[in-house]
Amino acid sequence: MQKQPLMSPAFELFLYKILTGLFFFFCFFPFTTSFRNGMDTQPWAFLFAFSLFFIMREKKLPGPLLFLFIPFIFSIFLACVFPFDKDGFRAIIHYMSLFFIPAATYWVLKLRQKSLLTILSITNVVWFTVGCIQYFFYRPFLSFLLTRASSVHSLSRGCGGLSPEPSTYGTVCLFLMIFFYIESPKKKWPIVLLLIQVLFFAKSSVSLLIILLIAIVVFIINGSFYTLISIPISLTLFYKIVTSKLFEGSRLFSLINSFKVDPAQVIFKDASLLDRYIGLEGSFRGFLTHYGIPRGLSAWVPYSHQEAERLGIINLRIISTKILSGYGSVLFELGMVGLIPILVVVWLAFKLYPQRKRTATILAVAITFLMITPVPIGFPYFCFLLGYMAYKAYGRLPAPDTEINKA
Q1: In the chain, how long is the greatest CA-to-CA distance?
Q2: Which of 59, 109, 255, 296 has the fewest CB atoms nearer than 10 Å to its CB?
Q3: In this structure, what are the phi and psi dihedrals at residue 43, rounded to the nearest 5 degrees?
Q4: Does pTM top 0.85 for this prediction?
Q5: C-alpha to C-alpha distances, 134 to 40, 143, 153, nearest whole angstrom
Q6: Higher local confidence (pLDDT), 54 or 375
Q7: What angle do CA 62, 114, 30 make, to 5 degrees?
Q8: Which residues, other chains included, contact 92 with Cβ-Cβ below 8 Å and sequence gap of 6+?
Q9: Cβ distance 55 to 185 under 8 Å?
Q10: Where are the alpha helices (DSSP H) in 113-165?
Q11: Over 80: is that where the pLDDT of 7 sits?
Q12: Roughly how many angstroms between the first and final C-alpha of the chain, as a whole number?
């Protein structure tokens, strides 16, 4: 007797379209929610990716994405072996996202077999429009969609757009730049819109610094005659921009002025910078001094306090309970297993550009610069990017002929 399907083909197709639409939306607008739940980055992208897993008939994945299943399984093992608390639970969600969001992205894009340019362009325009309205007219515009909006009442800082703060707004713009560079490198207007958002709307000093570092890497890798001239020009231009009236009142403006007065103490005079420094330096230091042995999912708080005391910091309340580095967190918590997502990025970059080693190197370095900042390893933009790169490298083949494929 033939087994009857649980869902009719028509309903399965309808459900697939709904889940796919919501999945795309929450990947590109990951901070939006209908109710406040205390989290900046919402779990909806992961939940819809997890739901798509159960209705996809074709579940084959390329090698790099299969390797992302190992950190997830290993995190479950660590949760059973080491002490476990709410920070550990949050870490497991990130590692689940690290596998399921790239997998769902790969499956959906392979079934669609269409360019992502339209979705990326709409996303860019939406972020630009919201940022423009917030900057020129009304700061709290659409802030009710966010759990937290720190820049609403601060006119000296940049806007947050559809994110909690200007730095995360700038991070989103940088990820979108990478998407546009891969999808349509000849189109300039999307990059111009994103640069306007970083410079004028978000005024994100971290994003500007990452752009500067990527530019320097590009000059060095290209190795042209003008490299020696281009780097000092870029540094001078960067200095002129961040010390102009445009950035007056920003954190980077204050830091540069503090650096002029006392370079040795500049990190210790800014609580946010000090917290990020401990998150970055402490996590990598914790990985190296432990010889790549995992420390577990809930070991950061006591370790960060030890690091703070080592640096002579008395006020431990300024230290975040989260590791403020994506790559740092995965190395600190998982040890050597944490190298897997880092190596997957390099693997996909060189698979995507097999004949253009310089381009692949620049892409891998750009993603690395982003992921050593306070970007969670399960951040939807990063996870979607992994699945997208895998699709561009492996997925351009005819998809299986099922009802869902006709969507």
Answers
A1: 83
A2: 59
A3: -90, 5
A4: yes
A5: 19, 10, 11
A6: 375
A7: 75
A8: 72, 75, 76, 79, 297
A9: no
A10: 117-136
A11: no
A12: 30
